[in-house]
Design goal:
Heme binds at residue 436. By secondary structure, the protein is an alpha+beta fold. The chain has 17 helices and 11 strands.
Length: 494
């Protein structure tokens, strides 16, 4: 090779190493971590097919707080309950930023609820929480809406006539319709073509987001964005969903009655009108569309995937399902619709639902946080803007809090007397200021949907129990369950 070329490459390599060193040590002592390579960072030390497992292995070597470079971007990983609690609760304001998630930055552009920051995030989150909590406004409560949808879900499952079916679309439609009821005032028929396409896009997006290719995109977005790949399909799907929501926003604008707001969109439009003279207002149509999409994505996919994964686990463990049936018969009976008051008298069912959420570990690394200021954390100084990864899987699979965490066991949430046992380590929705705004709604849906399904149907597997595989097929952003078929046999008491 030409000596001048060698010299030039050596200079570039030195500059890159100096750049990495300055990022890592220029503002104080960072947590320990593996030595990064120029440009690619620590990517060679990570398994992109199961990046969260790699994080757990690195924690054994470097401790509960360690530094990684994802490409050239620095990140601090928090492993274990104490580290996550200390950061997200003990230093809540400093750790309340949203870390960079390049594929979402491309799609959301910093708008909406999930991926916004600063004053925009504070205003949108405060408004969304208030509106969701007080949504009834003297009309039907959220619980009534979920109960109504649970009945519709049962009717849809009856149409399968006890034959083998893939439950994905049906189970996705139910929580999505709850969100439709809150956001659009009314539910949509499961067979509606636009609704079906919306379901397909949501389901496909989760699969794409959990793929290794998106991990690569997030590491090198400026390069990968222009290459062929499934990220283009993801962007196309979100464009369709954006148009779907925008169409309904325009319908609401034409029929808005400020004296009688019907749903979340009406309430947001009233806020837009109220602040139209404020040039700094965050209540814009763009923020409305992306906030609605965030509610759809977070409120539909997390619940539907938990339902789908949960039914697969119940197929795998029929002795557990039998105990739930017995508790439903004893507490609710065959004719009364399940309600949230029943949960206090159903410790076993409550424990099973919590164990489903713990075991499936749906969003292992949560969404990335970022520190909003230079922060002294333990013996380290973390610079402002650093991405923070709270590894929820390290809490949900803590082997001291949950003995034999790799086993699906409802007794993780039951005491010796069979009473439901709460755990501070139950963090599927994360904690702190960035915790999921829809946690209460999701817990309500899971209890009412699971109990209503099991009140009306017996679950029958299509294959032998030993052949039922509950291993997730994707281990990226989400844990995605394998596809499967199931028979919903109507209960004899129906």
């Amino acid at each position: 090779m030409d000596p001048s070329v060698v010299t030039a490459l050596s200079v570039i390599l030195c500059l890159l190493l100096i750049s990495v060193w300055r990022k890592g040590y220029g503002k104080g002592k960072l947590p320990p971590g593996p030595t990064p390579f120029p440009i690619i960072g620590n990517i060679l030390q990570l398994d992109t097919k199961n990046i969260n497992k790699s994080f757990c292995l690195l924690a054994k070597a470097y401790g509960p707080v360690f530094t990684l470079y994802l490409g050239s971007k620095r990140a601090i990983v928090l492993h274990g309950y104490e580290a996550i609690k200390e950061a997200l609760i003990g230093h809540g304001d400093a750790f309340a930023g949203r870390g960079s998630f390049p594929i979402s930055d491309t799609i959301n552009k910093g708008f909406g609820l999930l991926f916004s920051n600063g004053e925009r995030w504070k205003q949108i989150r405060r408004f969304s929480l208030m509106t969701l909590r007080n949504f009834g406004m003297g009309k039907r409560s959220i619980e009534e809406r979920v109960q109504e949808e649970a009945k519709c879900l049962v009717e849809e499952l009856k149409k399968t006539n006890g034959l083998p079916c893939d439950p994905t679309t049906i189970l996705e439609s139910a929580p999505c319709n709850v969100i439709c009821s809150v956001v659009f005032q009314k539910r949509i028929e499961y067979q509606d073509e636009k609704f079906q396409r919306l379901m397909e896009n949501l389901n496909e997006n989760i699969r794409i987001l959990s793929s290794p290719w998106i991990q690569v995109y997030n590491l090198f977005p400026s390069l990968v964005h222009y290459l062929p790949g499934i990220h283009h399909k993801l962007i196309e799907n979100f464009r369709y969903m954006n148009d779907f929501v925008l169409e309904r926003v325009k319908e609401h604008q034409e029929t808005l009655n400020a004296n009688d707001p019907r749903d979340f969109i009406d309430c947001f439009l009233m806020k837009v009108e109220e602040e139209k003279q404020n040039p700094q207002s965050e209540f814009t149509i763009e923020n409305l569309v992306y906030t609605t999409l965030d509610l759809f994505g977070a409120g539909t996919e997390t619940t539907s995937t938990t339902l789908r994964y949960g039914l697969l686990l119940l197929l795998k463990h029929p002795h557990i399902t039998k105990k739930i049936h017995e508790e439903i018969d004893r507490v609710i009976g065959p004719n009364q619709s399940p309600c949230m008051k029943d949960r206090n008298n159903m410790p076993y069912t409550n424990a099973v639902i919590h164990e489903i959420q713990r075991y499936i570990d749906l969003v292992p690394a949560s969404l990335p946080h970022a520190v909003t200021q230079d922060i002294q954390f333990r013996q380290y100084l973390i610079p402002k803007g650093t991405t923070i990864i709270p590894l929820l899987t390290s809490v949900l699979y803590d082997n001291e809090e949950f003995p034999n965490p790799d086993q699906f066991d409802p007794h993780h949430f039951l005491d010796e007397s069979g009473n439901f046992k709460k755990s501070n380590y139950f963090l599927p929705f994360s904690i702190g200021k960035r915790a999921c705004v829809g946690e209460g709604l999701a817990q309500m849906e899971l209890f009412l949907f699971f109990t209503t399904i099991l009140q009306n149907f017996t679950l029958k597997p299509v294959t032998d129990l030993k052949d039922i595989d509950v291993t997730p097929v994707d281990n990226g952003f989400n844990h995605v369950p394998p596809c499967y078929e199931i028979c919903f046999l109507p209960s004899k008491n129906m």
